[in-house]
Amino acid sequence: FQLIxxxxxxxxxxxxxxxxxxxxxxxxxxxxxxxxxxxxxxAVIPSIRRGVVFLHHVNIPFGxxxxxxxxxxxxxxxxxxxxxxxETLFGWDLDAKGDSDGHYCLYLHGxxxxxxxxxxxxxxxxxxxxxNVSVLAMDYRGxxxxxxxxxxxxxxxxxxxxxxxxxxxxxxxxxxxxxxxSLGTGVALGLMERLKKEGNRGYPRSIILLxxxxxxxxxxxxxxxxxxxxxxxxxxxxxxxxxxxxPSLDRLVYVDCPLMxxxxxxxxxxxxEHGMTFYEHAKKKVDSYNVYxxxxxxxxxxxxVYSEMLLARFAGFMRIPFVVNRH
Length: 327
Hints:
Layout: H1 2-14, H2 17-44, H3 46-54, E1 76-82, E2 88-94, E3 104-108, H4 118-131, E4 134-138, H5 152-170, E5 176-181, H6 183-198, E6 206-210, H7 216-222, H8 232-242, H9 248-251, E7 259-264, H10 272-285, E8 291-296, H11 308-318
Parallel strand pairs: 3-4, 3-5, 5-6, 6-7, 7-8
Antiparallel strand pairs: 1-2, 2-4
């Protein structure tokens, strides 16, 4: 404290109080101005709003996604799929490291980055080596090396094309499970709605949701970066813009397979309360004996410890015949 006081006195003697406090506070003032500027631009310009929500321009890690060996993702192959509206999706079809017996996991990632982000590769490796399932991981339109611009409807169309690819490859949709994270959970439930309504495209064996949100508007309002703006008018504005995008709770009625909800208790991006609300609604709208929740104590949004117990649950959902008891 004496050192801080001496530094304070040193600068105070050499400048006026006003200029001194301006020198101290100006970086914070600049930060507030940048924050409010981004909020304003996102509110009035749809393309910036889309970029803030999807963060698809944050295309990391850098590098050629064609090189599976560089990312430690072998054995597997790269895949390019064309959607019904002409976009090209790029991804990885990764082989299980044991006997998969034809079981596949369709992985739907969250916003920002591409399929090669380290925390995503850790999950692929755990699924392939511990659960013994093959993994299809693809970037949505506008992400990674895929073409196009992301929209809620567009991402759901991308997921449907990925699903078609796996059904054609396996010939048996009951060997396909869906594992989705964050933004991907909204995409996954949009896919479930379409499969249920069309009725002739097969249906997954199970669905696992990591850090799900109740709706996109709720996720934005509860996000850490929205806290300074939380008030009735700002929340109403967000609901008016985003309420028709990824209405996850409403789509639970289309889930007709075992459902597992996994959420970290220290998640600051999508708070743990979303997962608990999701679970309570799921017990009412889905066969309650096929709904299971798993809390990761201390787990953040993207940093999970895939314990043996959690991986065993994954294996139960993806491979082993079972009846899940309500917990």
